[in-house]
Amino acid sequence: MVNKAKPVCQTLEELASTAARTRLQSRCFVRRQDIQTNAYKVALFEGLPRDDENTQSPLLSKLASLEIRTIAGMRYARAKTARLTLLYGESPWRIIALSLGFILAVALIYPLNEWLRPADGVPITYTQIAQDPSLFLESLYFSTLTFTTLGMGGYEPLGWGQVIATLNTTFGAILVALLVFVFGRRAAR
């Protein structure tokens, strides 16, 4: 059934492209990718049937099955990640939401253990934020600055804060690149 559904989705996708129906084209593309992801899942959990199992030794058969399942598992994980984060390159909103969530999460992490200090003050902690809630905005500001790789501003990450700032910058660059990819993909239609 999978072998029949994929070509139907691909044909519909091509027809939608010809008719300049970009939403339909996008939905058909996503559906085709979902079908392929399902095929990876089936191969992962059930393995692929082999016609020559009787001619191979049991050990070779098990190794081949393990290899097939390992490859299928990696492809399944990659496809699920692409669906969750990018909707297979079709949804800029997912990347924007993921980026905003990541910025907020990092801003919440910095005050945990005095990992962020303004240049002219003491490290920001939740105790200080309870007294002056505007300090959380400073943590959010720093998280946004490092995510967008604009710089450190008047702040200094301390201890594990340096690692967090590095990860923030790295994921920021990756997510911005993915956003550009999705916009480019949509503009190319």
UniProtKB/TrEMBL annotation:
Residues 134-186 form the Potassium channel domain. SUPFAM superfamilies: Voltage-gated potassium channels. Keywords: Membrane, Transmembrane, Transmembrane helix. This is Potassium channel domain-containing protein. It comes from the Archaea. It comes from Halosegnis rubeus. It holds the Pfam family Ion_trans_2. The chain crosses the membrane at residues 93-112, 160-183.
